[in-house]
Amino acid sequence: MMNNIHLTTIAQTSFKGMSKQEIIRELGDSFNFFPDDIWYYELSKNWFGLKKVLCIVFENDRVLFQCIKKTYGKITTTRLP
Q1: Are 9 and 27 in contact (CB under 8 A)?
Q2: Class of residue 54 by CB neighbours under 10 A (exposed 0-12, middle 13-18, buried 19+)
Q3: For the CA atoms of the chain, what is the radius of gyration?
Q4: CB atoms inside a 10 Å sphere around CB 25
Q5: 2 or 81: whose pLDDT is higher?
Q6: Helix, strand, coil in percent for the chain, rounding step 5
Q7: pLDDT tens digits, residue range 5-58?
Q8: For residues 18 and 22, what is the distance between their CA atoms, to the nearest angstrom?
């Protein structure tokens, strides 16, 4: 889990066009499977269990888009924009 200062920086940063290797250098691997096209980074979690998660979607190993999602429990890919 990343600290809140880093969370603010990530929310303002655009990763669009970056490669998977560049994302790993910037954010770490965080248990993401390298060949997957969707990676998740848990940014924060409150005591109710609400998670803020950075979702990064790749196309041809480059970031297509990113979003920050709030969710309880498991993360589902069906509700990504």
Answers
A1: no
A2: buried
A3: 12
A4: 10
A5: 81
A6: 25, 35, 40
A7: 466 677 678 899 999 999 999 888 888 999 999 999 988 888 888 988 899 999
A8: 6
**pTM given for the model:** 0.79
Amino acid at 17: G
- Residue 73 predicted with pLDDT over 90: no
Single-letter amino acid code for the residue at 33 = F
Residue position matching structure tokens 């848990």: 42
Neighbours of 23 (CB within 10 A): 22
Contact 54, 71 (CB under 8 A): no
- Cβ(79)–Cβ(57) under 8 Å? no
